[in-house]
Amino acid sequence: MGFGDLKSASGLQLLNSFLADKSYIEGYVPSQADVAVFEAVGSSPPPELYHALRWYNHIKSYEKQKASLPGVKKALGKYGPADVEDSTGTGGDNKDDDDIDLFGSDEDEESEEAKKLREERLAQYESKKSKKPALVAKSSLLLDVKPWDDETDMSKLEECVRSIHADGLVWGSSKLVPVGYGIKKLQIQCVVEDDKVGTDMLEEKITAFEDYVQSMDVAAFNKI
User: Fold this and answer.
1) Distance between CA 24 and CA 111 in Å, rounded?
2) Which residue, 56, 26, 27, is CA-closest to 41?
3) Residue 31's domain spans which residues?
4) pTM of structure
5) CATH assignment at residue 152
């Protein structure tokens, strides 16, 4: 096994093919295996070797942390496709290597460890996400409620308006504002949850008190 001379075109082509369906030389996280092969490559692969170039630039971003990456750096011949002979002479001649597949066992062990770590992190993320309270969108409204004439009982009109109850609706302060000819309108504040209460619904319910209410307008609308 091995990539051969990674400074040669054939070695880089072999590396490119090897990384076509892999993110790292071994396992699912950057490790000393990536550092060893990165140092053997030496310089950026040509653009046409897309997979090798992508991997090279990614490992290059770990330049300052490479000493802390997991794993133990092995001889270069220990890395690469298993069906290619090591042309560097650094591996493959040792008889013990025929009996023990160090590369295979290390990869399996690291893959299981990386998989377990990923599952734990996903579980932690889902747990935090489920405990985080959902953001409720609210708005503050100022409503103008106009009576029919100056003889309308404004106290009764306000009582009717405040009798409207809905999930996500909270009434606030109010006052009477002169509009002319002795007529006053009711100006009343409320806070609504946007997903539960809309201005159309408020208008429909308020104007339903047709004995007192002529019309309703939204004088001010602010997101909270």
Assistant:
1) 11
2) 56
3) 9-78
4) 0.42
5) 3.30.70.60
pLDDT at 107: 46
Domain count, the chain: 2
Neighbours of 57 (CB within 10 A): 11
CA 145 to chain CA centroid, Å, is 44
pLDDT at position 102 is 44
Q: Which of 78, 99, 122 is the last residue of a domain?
A: 78
- The CA–CA distances, whole Å, from 210 to 14, 130, 214 equal 83, 46, 7
Mean pLDDT of the region 103-123: 68
Q: At 122, is the pLDDT very low, low, confident or very high (cuts 50, 70, 90)?
A: confident
- Residue type for position 34: D
CA dihedral 152, 156, 162, 164 (to 10 degrees): -80
Q: What is the pLDDT of residues 9-21, one digit of tens each?
A: 888 999 999 898 8
Give the residues across from 152 on adjacent strands: none
Sole residue written with tokens 């609308």: 221
Distances (CA, A) of 127 to 119, 122, 124: 12, 9, 5
Alpha-carbon span 202 to 217, nearest angstrom: 10
**How does strand 138-147 pair with strand 213-223?**
antiparallel
Instruction: Measure CA 45 to chain center.
Output: 32
As a residue count, the chain comes to 224
Nearest to 220 by CA among 113, 141, 162, 151: 141
CA distance linking residue 97 with residue 99, whole number of Å: 5
